[in-house]
């Protein structure tokens, strides 16, 4: 386990700590989501829960199979949770958790060597830019310039 994991502590509450991405390596397309959810934590496979099924359906509708065409991963490797009543529910990762997982995301991007990175929300934008982005806002549907990306490719 990397020192960053010990500083973060998310791994303590996970059934499947340090979840890797899935898909071909290298891949021309890389999708980056927020964090594993409950189903992903149970199965130790990213994007197999409700969001993953929706994404697979969208990609299939345009003739792209998720497994065959893209590598998919998350900005945060372990499931962030909060206790609501007697149940654990997903929560948005903190800026610190995103930053500490950044070393893994940067390594994954350098291994996958994508030509196109599609970020699925504010959390992965934070992971790529190194900024504490809380809303997609100005990043919506626009490419990031390399000066905005804090990853050495």
Structural write-up:
35% of the residues lie in helices and 14% in strands. It is an alpha/beta fold and 153 residues long. The strands form 2 sheets. A 3-stranded parallel sheet has the order 2-1-5. The chain has a two-stranded antiparallel ribbon with strand order 3-4. A hairpin with a 2-residue loop joins strand 3 (81-84) and strand 4. The longest helix has 18 residues, at 95-112. The model has no long low-confidence stretch (mean pLDDT 80).
Ordered list of secondary-structure elements with their pairings:
Elements: H1 3-8, E1 29-33, H2 38-43, H3 50-61, H4 66-69, E2 70-74, E3 81-84, E4 87-90, H5 95-112, E5 116-119, H6 122-129
Parallel strand pairs: 1-2, 1-5
Antiparallel strand pairs: 3-4
Helix pairs in contact: 5-6
Integer average pLDDT: 80
Strand order of the largest sheet: 2-1-5
Indicate the overall shape.
Answer: globular
Judged by helices, strands and strand pairing, the structural class is alpha/beta
Summarize the structure in short.
This protein has 153 residues and is α/β, with parallel strands linked by helices. It has helices spanning 3-8, 38-43, 50-61, 66-69, 95-112, 122-129; strands at 29-33, 70-74, 81-84, 87-90, 116-119.
Structural descriptors:
5 strands, single chain, alpha/beta, two-stranded antiparallel sheet, 153 residues, 14% strand
